[in-house]
Fold each of these.
Amino acid sequence: MKQFRSSILLSLLGFCIAACSKEGGSADVSNNSSTGTGGSLARFTIAANHLYLADYSTVEVYDISDAANPVNKGSINAGFGVETIFPYEDKLFIGSMNGMFIYSIADPDNPVKLGEARHVRSCDPVVASGTTAYVTLRGTACGPATDGLYIYDITNIMAPVLKKILALSTPSGLGIKDSVVFVCRGNSGLTLVNVKNPSSPQPMYTVSGNNFNDVIPYGNLLICYVSTGLLIYDISNLNQIVKVGAVNY
Amino acid sequence: MINMRKLLLVLFVSTFVLSACWDWTRKPVSTYKKVWGYKPVFTQDTTFLKVQSEAPRQMRNPGKIYVRGNLIFQNDIGYGIHIIDNSTPSQARPVGFIKVNGSSEISITGNNMYVNSFTTLVVLDISDWQNVRVVKRIADAFKQGINAGYYQYYYIPPPVHGVYYDCSLTGYRPGMLQSGWVQDSVYNMCFFK
């Protein structure tokens, strides 16, 4: 009985905390500060109090305004093999095995397709910045695409235009900070690419010695998912990033 | 005959999709034959779905990463989520583990973490991450691929690298969970590199 009562108290307390934090959340489409950041290979993302989940050929939409009671609001049909979801401003960039799809989440319950760039079958994480979207296509296990960093002009979001393909072998996850794109390339390392002029990307240098899968630029840190676990780089000087930490599990 | 064709279709599609993003590879061989490898073990024991905070443990299959504040979360594919204290990056260290069998994805907002556990979406209260609490389970949130007869029905990678594994649906029935692997004679179709 005592236990029962304390569990009620606990759940009430939990409810209060949840209610308070909900109040603090903004209706703004951009992630509020309490939402974390995922990598470019993520299949879950949270934006505008909604959770978007990739499930094979669709992206399921859940309203999580009441965190404990996600409400399914339907789904986006996004082609074959949805692999990655990247939120940017009031949009979702969805990488599926046959293309990049851009959806508006101005109405978060009802994502609306704005544009798409179809390509040959491949794995293709996406990041975006300003009027440019960056996609890595890897032609090995996934499909016949040419390995590289594909750069799209999305000034007209309805019709992304392929501006440039920078050939880079075995690309995987990617991230962007200022005008530098970090491209993970498995055993070939981590390649930094200057994209100040997106039509003319300039490879800067490659950090080797690890098998890089994905990265999260986080302020002045770059959190790297490598085959052995986790590495942390200081990226305050993009001309020379410095490894500051490694997690030994 | 129909079963065989279905099996081959499932083999082909599942290996293709798995290899695409999970670093599981389909070996290009011209003739399939049986070799010594690993076969998945399925269970209906739902205690396997129990989610709980645990002490830091060894990483088995490094997976996706997620950052919030001074904490980094890294999935251990199939087993759960490692929590890393990154308040001093040069001394980043694991401080805890959240056991979630069948997991591969993480997202966090407010006090809640959203994570997959096989085909279920689990919502956790992580305000006290040393004592996480399940606040909601949504069954069959990820059933699509399985219903279609292909896609990720294995959520726990084989115990060792460099082995062939059975990627057919042998022994699987709806509602079952993969609890692990057992050594057996399998077709040399799917290779865990």
Amino acid sequence: MPSEVIYEPIEEFGLVEKNKSKALFSKIGVIGCGLVGQNIARVASFFGIEVVFIEVSEDKIREAYKNIEKVLDERIEHWGITSGEKRAILSRIKGSLDYQDLKGCDFVIEAIRAVDRGGKIKERKEIFHKIEEVVDSDCIIATHSTTIVITELSSDLKCRDRCVSLHFFVNHQEARVVEVVRGLYTTDESYQKVCQFVALINRKIVPVQESAGLVSVRIFVVLLNEACEILMEGISNIDDVDQLMRIGFGMRLGPFELADKMGLDKILRWMDNIYNEFGDIRYKPSPYLRRLVRAKHLGIESGDGFYKYDENGKKIVQLNNQRC
Amino acid sequence: MKILVLNCGSSSIKYQLFNMTNRSVVAKGGVEKLGMKGSFLKHVRQDGQVVVFEGEILDHKIGVEYILGILTSEKHGCMKGLEELDAVGHRVVHGGERFNSSALLTEEILQEVTKCIDIAPLHNPPNLKGIRAMEELVPGIPQVGVFDTAFHQTMEPKAYMYGIPYALYKKYGIRRYGFHGTSHRYVSKRACDLLGVDYNTQRIISCHLGNGASVAAIKNGKSFDTSMGFTPIEGLVMGTRSGDLDVGVVHYIMEKEEIGIRSANTLFNKHAGMLGISGISSDMREIEMAKANGNERAALALDIYNYKVKKYIGSYIAAMGGLDILIMTGGIGENADTTREGVLSELDFLGISLDYEKNKGFRSEGIISLPDSKVKVIVVPTDEELMIALDTEEIVSSRTKS
């Protein structure tokens, strides 16, 4: 019996002739490896895709690695993956300072930390330019920004028909859904390619028309503003509002818990941007939220937000907060 | 007559091409990682040569197209053209209460299969995709659906009803359906043939022990009870499935681990069972190796496994009022002599006397009980694909005659 296995390219064996296609999404790039970037890198790598992430310093790269590893360790503890899978996932993720390493990517997403950019669209535009210089003309360039519209971001590019905006949910691991936005220039082909990518990483696609704040962010900021308003009017307290929304509306997390998890500084910037875009008072950041951010109470990350947290990010129960 | 048997899963397609004149397998193989990174097709030619085809295989239709392309290719194929193919048999996981036997897949029947998606949302859609792809690629080819649940449709209500409000059965069809029906049907018939007894007068327990595992009680040629229920998770402890579980545990874990329904589902189906208990693997051989090296949890996992099968055997003997034949099949049942010994030892008081010497290293088809054992214990390698091919042949031939 012959023992050697024969290897063949499959494209030659279809019933109808097929062009040999380059395997799609064998490598993707992530610019900025904060919470969102780490999440995208980890998920894509889990599904077998090579990931290159670009950061601004060696320290940041190390930090991102450390955080990804921490999440994976948690998953192992909670039965989610094996240590072999963890090694495989980490081995597919490569951190770099050099945009040249994005060469050969089919998909690059900009997910820079809002903290670093100071809300300036200019910086994101520059990143888009830098990406365009190294990647092929059919590479998808995406942003994770929800409040800056992709048409504006891509307007100066040579091939602006391949730009989209994606919004992942990173607040809990079962949020397997992505908002996908096509800009004015985006072609059907590019949009389909993005949908293919999202399907590849086992996420549901919710198509959204281009608009600042998309659907999720816009609804959430209004909800949070209203919740803050209720606090300030002394109608209820933080615990009770969250409890009502959780139990009453079947939400996994109440608006304050959710806000603490997402980061209050990020939410404040979202509100500022959407308010600037629409000018509607509903989106204007609540003074309560602004006060917390000024005091550097940014949520779980800083140990203090609407609630207080210990060093493991666990909520510290404060009895005096229970009843008004 | 040449019949292609297809088993379409969510990310895989397994196939075997049969030449029905001598019931031989002409070629077989499978698509793996369908729709994912690193998809490939592994094909085994009749001469045993293994060929791996690498490249993007995005969906079931493209997968089926490549399978047909390879089977008819000059280089690795075994057919001159698609016209040589007479029929296709499909494994369909869930036939609900509608199907108690295999059926020719007409448009009308396909509508019925589509209705079953509701109770088998994970399994039936890929099965249907395979059927539709075949219809598009070779229009008009006769296709037969062989249902995993069909054999167990003879169970009586006392065996298939759960202790839940009756209205839920009426409303959603929540009841025990059982799976592995094609395998249980094949091995029980085959065992009777080998023993030279009348299938319709025997009380049989068939243990299909593979990565998924179930026990079936077959009385007078009809499935009487089986360990899998509404979904394949009920019953025995399996490779990665928990088996029978207190529903209170589900709720408690979800609350403590802060997970939702989907993650809980993954936990009980993919991270539980032998893998979850041993922490080593879902593969019996690796667990046995770890036990040999002194791993206590591996030993515990194996004990739990055997104990559970033993309990089911005991309860089915009671349910049927006796036992004539006990069958071991599936990857573990056919090969793991230690598991067979663990399950069947000390059952002499029930008339089951295992021939410990003969059982050791036994890897083929045949009796492994002592000559004076009241119950015949027999190992029968399962062949679901052949069963599907035989059903397909029968249905297609009778159609041509009429």
